[in-house]
């Protein structure tokens, strides 16, 4: 049995079908809302993951050998203004899960972010020293630390700029495509660098490292390091749409509530070497999105 907390997340939408397809594991899904997985190996639980007792009772009853935590407060600006909620989800929840998995002698897999770094000299490896500059990054770093301290049999996988096929929650690609489609002007920062991660690659890293005996810290980011502005232009070019609505802006000009680290990106050689896989670059990721859209055209209309 594998328990997935935050099963309704963007990452969950890729990971759950992959686990059902590629393993024989039963899945216990915890979410704030019912999810449409009609499968004999899926147990769905609608719970408030911030309720420690409910969390404990639900997971203890299933006795999983692994718990994968995908729940988080991921809105960076909201984390700055709603600090208690950010701490509850990004730290206290992780602490509770680490304790539950330790008692069960289960493995804990937790997902973190490149925002634990200050963005002065990315890209970063697993041995680079974190120095978060906003509350999201601080809370995620505290979550990493509490995970490792709470359960020695744990994995922390850092990722960045997740994108993939159109799903419920719009990602960067969808935001750009919607703007291109409707010819709505957008301003995109040209000084925030990262390596966008195709969601199926992240799901594969989580699944394969999770099912292995490996523990510790791993980075999982895509093959191309580029600014958000260059990524937006690539999306327009790939889908043959007019890029004239995309204009460049600096992070300073945008003046968002939370400070943003600039030169980020995650060197993912350790995961790629251990798993003998390559995380795809953006051309390949956009090709995968196009293939998905063609395959699922009926459902998407
Ligand atoms: N998206 C990115 O580009 C990115 C970049 C770096 C790191 N990460 C990390 O990767 C992990 C997965 O990210 P994601 O983008 O897949 O997540 P996501 O789509 O933002 O979903 C996060 C999930 O957390 C749960 N959640 C959020 N707010 C909640 C609340 N107030 N109460 C209860 N549950 C709540 C929800 O789960 P349910 O819907 O199941 O209730 C939600 O679907 C996170 O740890 C994130 O920090 C993401």
Question: Would you write up a description of this structure?
Answer:
This protein has a 7-stranded parallel sheet, with helices on both faces. The protein has a two-stranded parallel ribbon with strand order 7-10. The protein contains 12 helices and 13 strands. By secondary structure, the protein is α/β, with parallel strands linked by helices. It has a domain at 2-163 and 197-224 and 262-281: NAD(P)-binding Rossmann-like Domain (Rossmann fold, 3-Layer(aba) Sandwich). Helix content is 44%, strand content 17%. The chain is globular and about 55 Å long. The relative contact order is 0.14. The model has no long low-confidence stretch (mean pLDDT 97). The structure holds NADP nicotinamide-adenine-dinucleotide phosphate (NAP). NADP nicotinamide-adenine-dinucleotide phosphate binds next to helix 1 and strand 5.
């Amino acid at each position: 049995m594998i328990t997935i907390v935050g099963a309704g997340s963007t990452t969950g939408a890729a990971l759950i079908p992959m686990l059902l397809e590629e393993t024989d594991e039963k899945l216990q899904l915890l979410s704030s809302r019912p999810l449409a997985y009609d499968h004999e190996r899926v147990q769905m639980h609608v719970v408030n993951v911030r309720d420690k007792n409910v969390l404990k009772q639900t997971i203890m009853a299933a006795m999983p050998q692994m718990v994968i935590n995908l729940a988080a407060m991921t809105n960076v600006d909201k984390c700055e203004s709603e600090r208690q909620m950010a701490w509850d989800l990004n730290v206290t929840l992780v602490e509770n899960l680490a304790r539950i998995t330790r008692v069960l002698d289960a493995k804990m897999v937790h997902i973190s972010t490149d925002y634990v770094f200050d963005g002065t000299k990315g890209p970063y490896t697993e041995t680079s020293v974190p120095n978060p500059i906003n509350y999201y990054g601080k809370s995620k770093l505290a979550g990493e630390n509490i995970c490792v301290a709470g359960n020695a049999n744990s994995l922390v996988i850092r990722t960045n700029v997740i994108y993939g096929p159109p799903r419920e929650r719009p990602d960067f690609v969808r935001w750009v495509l919607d703007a291109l489609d409707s010819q709505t002007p957008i301003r995109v920062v040209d000084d925030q660098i990262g390596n966008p991660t195709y969601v199926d690659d992240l799901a594969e890293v989580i699944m394969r490292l999770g099912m292995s005996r490996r523990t510790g810290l791993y980075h999982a980011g895509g093959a191309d390091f580029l600014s958000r502005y260059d990524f937006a232009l690539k999306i327009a070019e790939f889908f043959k749409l007019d890029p004239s609505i995309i204009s460049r802006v600096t992070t300073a000009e945008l003046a968002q509530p939370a400070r943003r680290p600039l030169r980020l990106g995650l060197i993912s050689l350790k995961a790629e070497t251990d798993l003998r896989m390559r995380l795809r670059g953006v051309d390949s990721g956009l090709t995968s999105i196009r293939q998905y859209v063609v395959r699922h055209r009926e459902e998407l209309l």
